[in-house]
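Hi Prof. W.,

I finally got the Zn(2)-C6 fungal-type domain-containing protein prediction working! I wasn't sure whether to trim anything, so I left the full sequence exactly as given:
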Amino acid sequence: MRRHFQTCPDKTDIHQIPARKRGRLVQACDTCRAKKSQCDSEHPCERCSLARTECSYLRMNGSSRADTERLPMVSSTSHLPDESHAGFSHGAAPFLMSYTDPSLEATTDAFAAVGAHAEAFTDFAGTSNGPIASSYNLEGVFESLFTGIFSEIATNSTQTADDLVSPEISPNYMLALQNRAEELICNLHARYKMGSELSKPSQHSFPLDLAKNIFTGPNLSKYVSAYFTYTHPHFPFLHRPTFDALSVPTPLLLAMFLSGSFGCIPQDDAISARQFYAIGEEYIFRHLEQEVIGSDQDESHGVSTIQAALLIVSLQSCFNNPAVRYRLRVKRHPVLVASLRSMALTGGRRTRSTDVVDWNDFVSEEMKIRLVTYVYVLDCMNTVFFNSPPLMTVAEMTGDMPCATALFEASTASEFAEQDAIISRFEAQSQSVKDLVSSLLHEDSHGCKLPDCSPAEPKHLLVAIFALHSVIFVSRTSLLLSSLYQPLLRATDRWKELWDAAHARQGLEQAHFVGFTKYGAELHWLARKLIKFAHEGNTKCRYMLAMPTDSLRDLHELIKLHSNG
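And this is what came out:
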């Protein structure tokens, strides 16, 4: 066509054909490209619609349809995908509808679909004793199954791993990382030779050659970086500024390596690393049983092993594999909860002192507080999504709530002191989960007002709504719902008031959150539905029979049936 225009003698009133852009036409909007997600090329595309963000597809390619020239970007809130399109619903709980879809390979797909995951990239190079390579913008994303309740997403980037140059790492430091990688291989191999319960029948020997290709110094650097980029914002119970890959206990380093590798899929090594998830899980929990429960092991090592166990459970449970979930629910999670009690961590409080607080002591206390909080949320989520009876009670959650993220993320003692002068450690975050839930359930209608009993951040309210779900489950399965119907409804109403007020007070936008924090209102909707169904004796859905399961199908069917009602 362009060649004909150049030679055609009749060029009168013919508009010049615009020059074609060099290179391959963009097939996805900025958001989908950054997430390595399939874009449906609509305007706005479905993922941007669900995430309530602006879609840039037509801006990049100009007119992508015959009847359209250069349309301006429009707010995606004005166009939601049709309920039948791609299996998504625009009812009361579109995120939960997607999250519980049993046809997805992993629940993390739901976070990517709606933009509720952490974005690359953020600079995490500042470790205490060496430069872990941290500027990789790795393909894929890691969205932990649990929470995502403590951080805002990092700046979007459309670069890929191929566009970036790895930061220089000294040969000596890389050699030290290689030694640690080989240490991981030796420990996994030893665990296998001792008799692995989870090895495949077809696997007659430990895949040593494959392990040597995957567990390398460069991969250790990359996967730890990926962990802090993609997993940490969802699950921030490790202290990034003081993390040292050369000294961290082996079980925790292994858990971080495997979790980070998941964020690097579809790279070949990352895909192959999945073959070591099961043996890694077994190795970590054998350590947990030996070092923590009924032992006098050093406390710091015990805490790090519990952290490793929580990470590997989070990684494994995100896959829609009923057999794996059964093992986690029946064997692993009870051990995880028992380990917290064995170390008396559930009532952890910060040091109450008006004097200058030692930064290292604060970090140690805060990591324990966050660890307990996340294990408790994990327990509540097992109850919500799988009808699993809770193993932890609200009454035992008497410890402090996690502090402000800025305080925990302070990279030096001086920065901590500056933040501490601005952010009080002893305000709302010093109340416990028990205190907050008690306030919500209090009979006095004026028993819960902002700012008296409100947490400083929505992250605490997310813990509270999960705790209320646990209370609702116990109430309906103990035949107490009829007498607790009004108090539970009142508690959910108060929670919603606090949720809305906290967002309004802080000027927070929903799009700035990752994970479940972005969709706390949907958990509120589900809580009220479950209360009303139990009160009415509605057992049309299998989920309302409260039978433990290892599939999300029962809850998915309930949401699908009632999300528009």
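The mean pLDDT is 77. Does that look reasonable to you?

Thanks,
D.
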